[in-house]
């Protein structure tokens, strides 16, 4: 039985067009950040990325995860846009990148880079994707340092007094939610909404959903923080907060901060005075830079065109 060549070509053409139309439906432009586009596939990949680094995100509703992933990509595009304006060379040393990656995978209980690469592969995440995102955050931090390092103010004499006074050091393992409100009248409603979601979906997922800090993608998790490196007003509140308790929102530069105390430990030791002073100075500067980062991001975001398709 002979098959008509013309009919065969029509069938193939139909299949080709059908597959292309399916692909077009699957990959739609969702929004534009200036001239950069974010597609449905971009958001799908971001969902996969965030759930790989924060498995607890899977407890949220699909539409909530979708919005979190969209916000994450918008923030990333805004930072990339500003980085391109300020850096000619955006490549960072490989050893520095590996050090930053260690901070990421250690929070997942992974002990080596090779094990992390296997973990990513099993979750269908490209290692290069993670490196790219880590590099963007690192370059953003470098940009903030370059712009605001001269504005940092550290009272070294006060820190020296603190070191002499404290041989027993208290440290806190915390998570944060940083949020902003357009109008002070909206503060109560915003806080009540966040507070209610903390009760329902947990602090980490609430951080993913509401926090505008760069720690939001890791569920708001912070590293161990020395009590002496905190702002005095924050230190007073934290010192009265027990493990697993959540603070009331505290006014900080650019918005409000809610902290959850995950763990507390005390370290008793003979201090190397100079080393301890360097640590406290570094910690105090990092805290201030974090505040400047939020203010700077909010400032440049106002000039960015974000259009939903």
Salient structural properties:
11 helices, globular, four-stranded antiparallel β-sheet, 309 residues, Chitinase A, domain 3, Triger factor/SurA peptide-binding fold, 15% strand
Protein architecture, described:
The protein is an alpha+beta fold. The chain folds into 2 domains: about 30-150, Triger factor/SurA peptide-binding fold, CATH 1.10.4030; about 165-270, Chitinase A, domain 3 (Roll). The protein is built from 11 helices and 7 strands. Strand 1 (about 30-35) and strand 2 (about 35-40) form a beta hairpin. The model is unreliable at about 15-25 (pLDDT under 50).
Spell out the blueprint of helices and strands.
Elements: H1 5-26, E1 29-33, E2 36-39, H2 40-53, H3 62-86, H4 94-106, H5 113-122, H6 127-148, H7 156-165, E3 168-179, H8 187-201, H9 203-210, E4 221-226, H10 232-239, E5 250-252, E6 255-268, H11 273-301, E7 306-308
* CATH 2nd-level architecture of the largest domain: Orthogonal Bundle
Number of strands: 7
CATH class of the largest domain: Mainly Alpha
Summarize model confidence as the mean pLDDT: 86
Distance between the termini: 51 Å
Helix run count: 11
Q: Note the run of SSEs as H and E.
A: HEEHHHHHHEHHEHEEHE
Broad shape? globular
Strand arrangement in the largest pleated sheet: 4-3-6-5
- Structural class from helices and strands? alpha+beta
Say what the CATH topology of the largest domain is.
Triger factor/SurA peptide-binding fold
Low-confidence stretches: 14-25
Described by strand count, sense and barrel closure, the largest sheet is: 4 strands, antiparallel
Tell me the fraction of residues in β-strands, as a range.
Answer: 15-25%
Number of domains: 2
Helical coverage, percent range = 55-70%
Rg over CA atoms: 23 Å
């Amino acid at each position: 039985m002979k098959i008509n060549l013309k009919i065969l070509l029509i069938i193939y053409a139909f299949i080709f067009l059908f597959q292309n139309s399916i692909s077009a439906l699957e990959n739609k432009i969702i929004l534009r950040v200036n001239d950069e586009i974010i597609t449905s596939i971009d958001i799908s990949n971001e969902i996969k990325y965030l759930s790989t680094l924060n498995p607890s995100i899977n407890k949220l509703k699909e539409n909530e995860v979708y919005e979190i992933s969209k916000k994450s990509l918008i923030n990333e595009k805004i930072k990339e846009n500003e980085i391109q304006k300020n850096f000619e060379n955006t490549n960072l040393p490989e050893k520095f990148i590996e050090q930053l990656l260690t901070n990421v995978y250690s929070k997942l209980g992974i002990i080596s880079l090779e094990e992390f690469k296997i973990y990513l592969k099993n979750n269908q995440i490209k290692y290069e994707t993670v490196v790219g995102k880590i590099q963007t955050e690192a370059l953003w931090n470098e940009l903030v340092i370059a712009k605001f390092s001269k504005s940092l103010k550290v009272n070294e004499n006060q820190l020296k007094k603190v070191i002499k006074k404290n041989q027993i050091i208290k440290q806190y393992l915390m998570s944060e939610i940083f949020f902003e409100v357009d109008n002070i009248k909206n503060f109560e409603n915003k806080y009540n909404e966040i507070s209610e979601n903390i009760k329902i979906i947990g602090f980490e997922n609430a951080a993913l959903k509401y926090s505008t800090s760069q720690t939001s993608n890791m569920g708001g998790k912070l590293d161990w923080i020395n009590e002496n490196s905190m702002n005095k007003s924050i230190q007073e509140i934290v010192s009265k907060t027990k493990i697993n308790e959540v603070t009331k929102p505290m006014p900080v530069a650019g918005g409000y901060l809610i902290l959850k105390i995950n763990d507390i430990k005390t370290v008793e030791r003979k201090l190397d005075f100079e080393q301890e002073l360097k640590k406290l100075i570094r910690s105090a500067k990092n805290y201030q830079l974090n505040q400047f980062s939020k203010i700077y991001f909010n400032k440049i975001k106002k000039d960015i065109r974000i259009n939903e398709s």
